[in-house]
Amino acid sequence: MKIDIVTIFPEYFAPLDISLLGKARRAGLLDVRVHDLREWTHDRHRTVDDTPYGGGPGMVMKPGPWGEALDALVPPPPSDGLGNAGAPADAAVPASPGAPERAESGPAPGAVPRLIIPTPSGRPFTQADAVRYAAEPRLLFACGRYEGIDSRVAEEARTRMPVDEVSLGDFVLAGGEVAVLVMIEAIGRLLPGVLGNADSVADDSFAPGAMESLLEGPVYTKPPVWRDRPVPDVLLSGHHGAIARWRRDEALRRTARHRPELLRRFAPDDLDARDREVLRDAGFPVDSEGVAD
């Protein structure tokens, strides 16, 4: 997978050089290139923001630098038979001196990317999105700051690439960099070869399939007894069917306790008799309409 990141703080992405994603980059499984938006400014102060039309507090990121950055990374298609309307496909992209060591200066080559813009006003980012994005050949992340990026940037980008505006949750950050780090880790760990055991993602909270609307239950490792607290006997039994049933029961209980709204996604046919018994015991009786609290 190829990923481009545009930001005014390239150094924010140093964590992409460590742990699983750092190994994935060194192994050639993940090609991440970080670009400094200020390289597409033309004034002495390298200005990327201005006051908002209509008044109000805060500043808005200017469309000019963003437009030039996107043109360089995703050259516009030819407008006529004479050549491209924007930068040529092999246009050089300025280096990012503060970017992580392994970041390269040119655009990630290949297919037209999906542009992802983190914003509190976007739709929620979910595990399903992570799975979908992990199947894309190339992604481009735009890290906004201040009150956000001038809305015309996303509008214009949609004429030549898919654009998603996504949110991590109902809260506001100082900028998009943290959100992009979160999304890249969620996506990157799903790429083939990144995790030591590819099957481990199947039991993740929200994983497609049996866990899609459930939180993962409690987990244990050695020793079997720690500070007078034993591991549940079923996990030591070697009975794979019983262990799988216990894990689903615990996932149902934990979801009922911490995220009850997720249970409303279940249709009646999604739950077997044991599921219904567990939910009733947890205080969430199942009726003909699904789960009710």
From TrEMBL:
Keywords: Cytoplasm, Methyltransferase, S-adenosyl-L-methionine, Transferase, tRNA processing. Residues 1-74, 113-264 form the tRNA methyltransferase TRMD/TRM10-type domain. This is tRNA (guanine-N(1)-)-methyltransferase. GO terms for molecular function: tRNA (guanine(37)-N1)-methyltransferase activity. One of its GO terms (cellular component) is cytosol. S-adenosyl-L-methionine binds at residues 144, 168-173. It holds the Pfam family tRNA_m1G_MT. It catalyses: guanosine(37) in tRNA + S-adenosyl-L-methionine = N(1)-methylguanosine(37) in tRNA + S-adenosyl-L-homocysteine + H(+).
